[in-house]
Write a structure and sequence with these properties.
about 25% helix; alpha+beta; eight-stranded antiparallel beta sheet; about 40% strand; about 160 residues
Amino acid sequence: MRHTVVERELELNLILSPERSIPVPARLSYRSDDPFAVHVTFHINSEHPVHWTFARELLVEGVFRACGYGDVRVWPTKAEGRSVVLMALSSPAGDALLEASAAQVSTWLERTLRVVPPGAEGEQLGLDEVLAELLAPTPADDLRSRDPWPADEAKDGE
């Protein structure tokens, strides 16, 4: 099965305070072979980029209303008259509040939803085929279904 990747480079703003933010280049990635997840890679000034993975559904819902809890929370708002999506990320290494253009995120999400529509994610994983293969009878099943201890009844003439 051929898999599709939908990516978008964009610049997010890392909110440091109400008055200060810094731009952070990022890449949004979606893979049809991992249909429930979105991947965000932040290219910060370090040797290694920072990767986050969370539910696509969380980001889809977060464009319209506040959602999430724990490590990832997403909600829409306005900033300087622009529609933006805020993402609050928490980890043992620290917390970050990031701002993204709602239009850019929505356009990218629409592309992912055309690749794998909501509710069709499970079909991409091929779970039905894998389960059918796992549950298919094998020759060993015939042996297991036989009674290992034949009846103690005496045969005629014994």
